[in-house]
Design brief:
This protein starts with 5 loop residues before the first helix and ends with a helix. With 44 residues, the chain is mostly helical. It has 2 helices and no strands. Helix content is 73%, strand content 0%. The protein is elongated, with a radius of gyration of 14 Å. The chain has one domain.
Amino acid sequence: MPFANRYVVDVATLVLTYVMLGWGLNIVVGVRVLLDLGYVAFLL
């Protein structure tokens, strides 16, 4: 990308990964009212 260096791309990738994990956990636990700790295994 012409507007970002390697550090910015790495941080943005990490942030978007955590956002996707948070949205998935919100859907499983919040909307479906299921306790699924499988997301923690992917996080670690």
